[in-house]
User: What shape does this take?
Amino acid sequence: MALEQGAINLSQGFPDFPVSEKLIDLIHQKMKEGHNQYAPMPGAPALRKTIADVLQTTYQRPTDFETEVTITAGGTEAIFASIAALISAGDEVILFDPSYDSYDPSIRLNGGVPVHLNLNPPDFSIDWSEVKKKITSRTKMIMVNTPHNPTGSVLSDNDLKTLEKLAVEHNLIVLSDEVYERIIFENKSHESVLKYPGLRDRSIAVFSFGKTFHATGWKVGYSIAPENITREIRKAHQFITFSVNTPVQLALAEYLADPENYLHLGKFYQQKRDFFLNEIKGSSLEPLPCFGSYFQLVSYEVKKSDTEMSEWMTKEMKVAPIPVSAFYNDKTDHKLLRFCFAKGEETLLKAGKILRNI
Ligand code: PMP
Assistant: This one.
């Protein structure tokens, strides 16, 4: 609708600023050097090695690149392959709404039963006592996402410790979507499952270069899981994509080796968030707290559903948000809209000018 209406598209989550020239040159170089054939099924060894090094420095998680790292076609494939590998007919998977839209269908396509729990607004925290009540003998997996799309909330150390206790007690696999690991604000630290000893042995952590290097269109991500789980994930990955394109993997291996290329990301996006918030000051749209990801939620007062409000804004105001009810299985409508602020200043200035009139 945004395209049809010529509206400024702050709906879908993708950056509208360029990818690093250096990274593009590296890909070009790898292609020219002749790295244009199939990569090994689990991923290019050079990239898996660099990832293992980065995990050691970032999360103090010793990682065996041969047996624990799998390069996938984006975070989405890592999620799908993990579910395809580990979920059988009738297995229950606990997930939290609002949620990224691939989770529920990935579970259903593999015969699993999604058990949706709603996060608690306005901070979108997890009610762990509710989680306990939903665990049955059929519960196989619990999915978490931090920093969180669409709400911008982050899980705390306490959340991870509670998750660790529950997962160990009930023998659950944890699928942790951490694609926004580096987009985190206000000096908060990203609580990865990889930092918690009880979770490391039973978790899959999912990451995406699309988010970290502003290149969502390249669709390169990876999963980190202990050897016994990785073995299963690769059985699915082998027949979903087999392998991911070679030159991009080799270029990423070199680019990722320099921490300068990713350590600034939180600050970079915090500035964008603040720029956007400043631009919409004076509007009747009320921002909610946002501690990570590149999404800002706002509430509004008028008597329209969030879908009607989004349609009206796209058609009449020519700025497109996404209604948050779209991320709920039961279409809960808290009258919230999601804006993506991963945009250049010019786009945010134009959008802000319009949004201030609402
Ligand atoms: N998880 C979440 C929470 C996301 O927002 C996205 C991208 N929108 C993904 C996973 C998928 O990442 P990728 O584009 O690498 O498949």
